[in-house]
Design a protein that fits this description.
With about 475 residues, the protein is α+β, with helices and mostly antiparallel strands. The protein is about 35% helix and about 20% strand. It is built from 18 helices and 19 strands. The protein is globular, with a radius of gyration of 22 Å. The model has no long low-confidence stretch (mean pLDDT about 95).
């Protein structure tokens, strides 16, 4: 069984690790500890376990780790093995701080709550526990010649519960959809100890609002997901690949739009600007389009024919399919992050989503705004997930200031995020496509949602009146104090 992957070593002994984000910490006294141990299989105060539970793959937290810090540690880590234990107590691949225990207290580690509960290959649905890691899930499904089709970059270190809680997307989302398109029902442990089931009774059921979608993307603030029912697909019998070079990023976006408009949905339709094409594929002066699809042979041929026709009409240059092979081989490699931070370079990616009609100017303005920040070394983007109405853009920034100046680094990081968020909002786009909100985007969510944010606050107050579930996330108020952004 897959186990959690350490982000990067923390440059301090476990008992000397400190918290970077200040604020109130909720203690766990001996009486509470005794109660926890009476209902949960494993409860630990171990310093190493607490330090690991105090961070995720948030790039800023990787920088802090090189300085012997984590964002915020819990007082205790509990590892339940079933929904009953979760309710009695009531994975870490996120990159926005969604799992960080800002106010201490108890951190729930659901990795022991794993496995496929039921598999219906006739109806193509499966019930899966939240601590199931991606490789373990796919290995089990493929024994029955089916797949979920969800392949996030974090595949090797993320879980089903994390995908659902953060509304994740896989790299094949244009063919299979995002996780919200795959979820047909949920089992959720509520703050008051109840376990409820949503959906799952039949396809496209009309039983009032879709309550499953209430919890998809809620990042644990409304309830703890203890099981998910998901849609499956037969393993595709055929695969095809294409690579093209286009004169500019804007031209490439138009090609992608036209491919989707014609009804073709290749699993992968990724477009890189000239900077990222050079960095990733050693291609000069082109925007690289990477195409990969898997489907029934007739559907595959039709899809690739549409791609070829639109690229030809745009005067695109055919590239060696080795470009696609290179992407497949390196698509999940994030090993460069820690060395960059150790070298004093501040780096992160910001994924957003917007309509096709604004993506071109939004790209131009964001890259220009990032490049204009003092200390920026590089600013670039690629289009990673495309749909009929729009797409996701991934902006990458890197900057360097005076060596060892942590205050400069955090100011730069905050400024870079701010200019992207402001530009996206100005164009009416979504400030997140699939990485979620967590701590990092929490300060932007109320503005992004407008008056609808009050509805989210009301839901939180109704389902979790004591505010004990993942407090301080999604920009929601917490009874334990305000989130003190670093």
């Amino acid at each position: 069984m897959t186990t959690p992957t350490p982000v990067t070593p923390i440059d301090a002994p476990a008992d000397a690790v400190t918290d970077r984000i200040p604020g109130t910490r909720v203690p766990v006294d001996d009486a509470m500890l005794s109660r926890l141990r009476s209902v949960c299989d494993e409860v630990t105060l171990d310093d190493t376990a607490r330090a690991e539970a105090g961070r995720d793959w948030w790039p800023l937290a990787i920088r802090w780790a090189t300085r012997g810090r984590v964002p915020a540690r819990p007082a205790v880590v509990a590892r339940p093995t079933d929904a009953r234990q979760v309710t009695a107590v009531a994975g870490r691949s996120g990159v926005c701080g969604s799992s960080i225990p800002l106010f201490g207290g108890v951190s729930l580690d659901l990795c022991a709550l794993a496995g496929v509960v039921e598999l219906d290959t006739t109806s193509l649905v499966a019930d899966v526990r939240p601590g199931t890691f991606g490789p373990d899930l796919e290995a089990e499904l493929r024994r029955h010649d089916v797949t979920l089709g969800h392949w996030p970059q974090s595949m090797d270190l993320s879980t089903v519960g994390g995908w659902v809680a953060c509304r994740g997307a896989g790299q094949y989302s244009t063919r299979y959809g995002k996780i919200e398109d795959m979820v047909t029902g949920l089992e959720v442990a509520l703050a008051d100890g109840r376990v409820v089931r949503t959906g799952g009774s039949g396809p496209r059921a009309a039983l009032g609002p879709d309550l499953s979608q209430l919890f998809v993307g809620s990042e644990g603030v409304l309830g703890v997901i203890t099981e998910a029912q998901v849609r499956l697909h037969p393993v595709a019998p055929a695969q095809g690949r294409r690579a093209y070079g286009l004169a500019g990023f804007g031209q490439g976006l138009e090609v992608c739009r036209r491919v989707l408009r014609r009804g073709a949905t290749p699993a992968v339709l990724r477009l890189y600007d000239a900077t990222e094409s050079a960095r990733n594929f050693e291609l000069a002066d082109v925007s690289a389009l990477v195409v990969l699809d898997e489907a029934d042979e007739g559907l595959l041929d039709a899809t690739l024919a549409v791609v070829d026709a639109e690229c030809a009409a745009a005067g695109a240059q055919p590239l060696d399919e080795q470009v696609v092979a290179h992407w497949v081989e390196h698509r999940n490699d994030v090993s460069a992050l820690a060395p960059l931070y150790r070298a004093g370079i501040v780096v992160d990616t910001v994924e957003i989503a917007a309509r096709w009609s604004v993506l071109g100017p939004l790209y131009d303005e964001c890259v220009a705004a990032l490049a204009a920040i003092e200390g920026t070394l590089a600013a670039s983007a690629h289009q990673s997930h495309a749909y009929v109405d729009g797409a996701c853009l991934y902006f990458t920034f890197a900057g360097r200031g005076p060596d060892g100046d942590d205050e400069w680094a955090e100011r730069y990081y905050t400024s870079a995020w701010r200019v992207v968020m402001d530009t996206v909002r100005a164009h009416g786009g979504a400030i997140s496509h699939h990485h979620g909100v967590g701590v990092n985007r929490g300060r932007f969510l109320a503005d992004a949602l407008g008056p609808a944010f009050d509805v989210l606050v009301s839901l939180k107050e109704t389902l979790d009146p004591r505010g004990i579930l993942n407090p301080g996330k999604l920009g929601l108020p917490s009874p334990f104090g305000e989130v003190q952004w670093p």
